[in-house]
């Protein structure tokens, strides 16, 4: 049964719990693509500090030589741990802001979509930064001990709780405008498509 079928009226806003479930599901599917892509990116970014070739081809060969094709799944659980609740916060904050700002949350103005999208981005990254820090540590590790608990312990030992929030300022500065543009474009595209179809 489709969520839309459950409520019948496609103009009706979904209840917040359904928005959170839908948001979390995007985190699951996004992880399938983002996990390997972020692993390669992080391995490229950290290669020079370890005296390794950081080119795309070299990193892919290093991963495959050391761990086989399954090596590209390193950090999958950590990415899932970040993206499912992070996406729930992302879509939840976006929809909650639209419900607060808009007379009709299904038809926000450009300004309302920009503000709601920016708030969605702030919601996501405010929540996800500590989880992203753990994920990045797991994926940057080239050693055998690259587990989530090992990464968590290393961050706590090195920096305490504040270590989980390193980089939150730039992340939040980027989050608002990037997500404002994303969701405003989504709303405008959806409105245009609705007129066509």
Structure characterization notes:
It contains seven helices and no strands. Helices cover 75% and strands 0% of the residues. The protein is mostly helical.
Return the string of H and E elements.
HHHHHHH
Rg calculated over all Cα atoms: 19 Å
First and last CA, distance = 24 Å
Secondary structural class = mainly alpha
Specify the number of helices: 7
Q: What's the total number of strands? A: 0
Task: Please outline the major beta sheet.
Answer: none
Mean pLDDT: 91
Strand content: under 5%
Shape: elongated
Helix content: over 70%
The stretches of 5 or more residues where confidence is low (pLDDT under 50) are none
What would a concise description of this structure say?
This protein has 197 residues and is mainly α. It has seven helices and no strands.
SSE diagram, text form:
Elements: H1 3-7, H2 16-47, H3 56-67, H4 76-101, H5 110-140, H6 148-159, H7 168-196
Helix pairs in contact: 2-4, 4-5, 5-6, 5-7
Characteristics of this structure?
mainly alpha, 7 helices, 75% helix, 0% strand, elongated
């Amino acid at each position: 049964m489709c969520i839309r079928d459950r409520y019948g009226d496609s103009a009706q806003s979904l209840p917040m719990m359904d928005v959170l479930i839908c948001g979390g599901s995007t985190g699951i599917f996004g992880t399938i693509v983002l996990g390997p892509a972020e692993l390669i990116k992080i391995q490229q970014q950290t290669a020079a500090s370890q005296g390794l070739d950081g080119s795309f081809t070299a990193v892919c060969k290093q991963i495959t030589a050391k761990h086989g094709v399954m090596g590209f799944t390193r950090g999958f659980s950590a990415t899932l741990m970040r993206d499912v609740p992070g996406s729930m916060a992302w879509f939840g904050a976006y929809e909650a802001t639209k419900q607060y700002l808009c007379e009709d949350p299904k038809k926000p103005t450009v300004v309302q979509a920009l503000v709601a999208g920016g708030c969605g981005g702030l919601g996501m990254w405010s929540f996800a930064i500590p989880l992203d820090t753990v994920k990045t540590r797991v994926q940057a590790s080239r050693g055998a001990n690259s587990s989530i608990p090992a990464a968590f312990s290393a961050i706590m030992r090195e920096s305490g709780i504040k270590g989980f929030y390193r980089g939150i300022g730039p992340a939040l500065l980027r989050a608002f405008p990037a997500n404002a543009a994303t969701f405003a474009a989504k709303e405008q595209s959806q409105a245009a498509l609705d007129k066509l179809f």
